[in-house]
Amino acid sequence: MDEPAQDPHAGEPASLAQALAAQQAGELERAAELCRALLAAEPEQVDAMQILGVVLARQGFFDEADALFGRALDIAPRDPGLLFNHGNLLSRIGRGDEAVARFRAAIAAAPDHVEALHNLGRLHQEAGRLDPALTLFRRAVAVRPLYAKGWSALATVLKSQGTTDEAIECARRAIALNPRQAVARLTLASLCRDTGAAAEAIVQLRAVLEIEPDNGTALAHLVHQLQQACDWRELPELGTRLDQANDAALAAGTVPPEPAFANLARIEDPADNLVIARGWMRPLTRLPPLAPVAARVAAGAPIRIGYLSNDLQDHPVGQLIAGLLARHDRKRLHVSAYSWGKDDGSATRAQIRGAADSFVDIADLDHQAAARRIRKDGIELLIDLKGHTQGHRLEIMAARPAPIQATFLAFPGSSGADFIDYIVADRIVLPPEHRPYYCEQPVWLPHCYLPAIAPGPAADAGTRADWGLPADAPVLASFNNGYKIEPVLFDAWMTILARVPGAVLWLHRYNDLVADNLRREAAARHIDPARLMFADRPARATHLARLSHADLALDTRIFNGHATTIDALAAGVPVVALRGRHFASRVAASALEAAGLSELVAGTIADYVECSLSLLSERTHLDSLRRRLREARETLPLFDAAGYARAFDAALVAMAERHRAGRVPGAIELGAN
Predict the structure, then answer these.
(1) What predicted TM-score, i.e. pTM, was given to this entire model?
(2) Gap between the Cα atoms of 377 and 360, Å rounded
């Protein structure tokens, strides 16, 4: 956030002008020498102090720079340049609250100080105070409409708030003003990814790498976007580069460029996944926690639990959690929900609001203020539903607002955080031998850890023809996201199609490139591209209805279908899956075990192919599995919502009782009863 010190007195002696020129040219030793000479002659030369302070900060002499700015501000307390540059230093050394005060003072002294408006907005944004950040960025671009960095910053906040169209417009404006504005291009790429415009996202990411060839963030996002688009041609070389960039960052003690969630979809090794997650937690472990809770809650008192997420709406997480909230035992539990997501007006949002004893909107609270609110509410057990997924606020968890903290549902792996005590799992997704790869203690539920959603009122399924499907040929389905499909798996799918004449593969059109890319890959494997059929994703009830037309669902490998697998089983469609090496690649196996279909879980790709072919050739057996799913659905552990809630409640009580007894967190296992 450093900005060059500005020359408020262009007509001053040449030595001051020379010092400023040297500082701006990066000749720091020369600039420091000139400033010290000026101060020797005139100890209260404020402009020389300001230039020297900026130089010392850039050289890493933070204490000396801080003291120098303090001396200068004693002389000129309302100098906007001094206030601004001292704010930059304070921000850089982690004294955010003091930096905020300095930037505010600079703006009070010079209301049109664009850089101070921008940097104050950045501090608000980093703390989770999005509304004031948005106001400041709007002021900055109103003062200076050609301020590319301001438009870029405005785009990032609007994106975080879900105001997609305006965010795209602002990012494009920033790029038009400064085509080398890498941050704006990254933001635009992310927005394009979220709206399915993969082609433009890739263009923007490649442009960033042309501007900044060593930009690890752009490289990581390009790899993941190519996975999303199922364009695998460059991934071996780019993946090697990304591994090297991750290693370099970790060795330097900085955050790795690859997001922890994206790493799960690329690397099927829980040890490596933990290293990346821990790397992302490094900055958060330095955040100041709230004061420790003074006393434990008395034994027998109701357990106040809190759920933390911005997905408490019509989102897979919201859909999965809504029924659980409604079924918690209110004799033992008091349930609060803390949300920073927009109210989408959905039935799921209304269901969650109605199911929670307390629903608190924390969108306007920064991380520390949100943590204080949770602490004030007396939450004993706080459950984060985000993990390392987009838009998380793990900074709240880092403040330790609750004495017991757990991670659940959204992120299938260890958070890497020392401030999270437990992870809710089961013995399939997190077997005992994997415990060394988790910072958290496992809470093993008796069946699948996912709170599966049984289907609601049936929608009209129509006919196969209504969905563009063949009337008589076998229909294989996989409505997983594009990043979950990779060459080894696709080879298996094409082998199945080659051996089942007429069969079609029904896929999710996740973005504007995935259909063309997968059809090209099919042709390269001598499969008619027309046998790949693509569909958009309608509302869940409609999706489940149309999905019933599929004969068999094929799961993905490195990152299984989670809600996608549950949906197929809920629609009465058997799923063939693989049991992999890390949490994300073992979820479908867990769901199938709880659905009484463990025979559909393969250990190898060859077994996966043979299992699929066997089912497709023995229609009597496949039809019996489909009937079993439909007729016995209410009795299967996977869809036993009441039984799941009882087990989950028992897990919550076990965590709380362990804490109330003064014991440190430890592994907890719930029996089937």
Answers:
(1) 0.92
(2) 10
Number of H helices, E strands in the chain: 28, 14
Please name which of 174, 224, 180 lies closest in space to residue 202, comparing C-alpha atoms. 224
- Phi first, then psi: what are they for 336, rounded to 5°? -115, 145
CA 246 from centroid of its chain's CA atoms = 18
Q: What is the mean pLDDT of each run of 10 residues along the chain (673 residues)?
A: 47 74 94 94 94 95 96 96 96 92 97 97 93 97 98 97 96 98 97 96 98 97 98 98 98 97 97 98 86 66 95 92 94 96 92 96 93 96 97 95 97 97 98 98 97 76 93 96 97 98 96 97 98 91 92 98 94 96 98 97 98 96 93 88 96 96 96 72
∠ CA 507-513-514, nearest 5°, is 25
Dmax (CA) for the chain in angstroms is 98
Other Cβ atoms less than 10 A from the Cβ of 375: the count is: 18
Task: Report the pLDDT value the prediction gives residue 671, as an integer from 0 to 100.
Answer: 83
SS (H, E, C) 362-417: CCCCCHHHHHHHHHHCCCCEEEECCCCCCCCCHHHHHCCCCCEEEECCCCCCCCCC
The torsion of the CA quartet 343, 348, 352, 353, rounded to 10 degrees, works out to 50
Q: Are strands 668-669 and 575-578 parallel, antiparallel or unpaired?
A: unpaired
User: Would you say 413 and 264 are in contact if contact means Cβ atoms under 8 Å apart?
Assistant: yes
Are residues 121 and 140 in contact, defined by beta-carbon separation less than 8 angstroms? Answer: yes
Residue type, 257: P
HSE of 439, CA atoms in CB hemisphere, 13 A = 20
- Spatial strand order in the sheet of 532-535: 532-535, 504-508, 475-478, 552-554, 575-578, 601-602
pLDDT at 10: 41
Determine what percent of the chain falls in helix, strand and coil, rounding each to the nearest 5: 55, 10, 35
pLDDT in tens, 406-422: 999 999 999 999 999 99
Quick: pLDDT tens for 12-60: 455 889 999 999 999 999 999 999 999 999 999 999 999 999 999 999 9
Token couple for 348: 């799921």
Task: Give the single-character DSSP code of 440.
Answer: S
Cα separation, 599 vs 593, whole angstroms = 8
Query: Could you tell me how many residues make up the chain?
Result: 673
Is residue 228 within 8 A of residue 193, CB to CB? The reply is: yes
Cβ count within 10 A of residue 239: 17
Distant-in-sequence, close-in-space partners of 97: CB < 8 Å, separation ≥ 6: none
Backbone Cα Rg of the chain: 28
The DSSP output letter for 341 is S
Dihedral pair phi/psi, residue 575, rounded to 5°: -125, 130
145, with CB counted inside 10 A (0-12, 13-18, 19+), is: exposed
558: left (phi over 0), alpha (psi -120 to 50) or beta: alpha
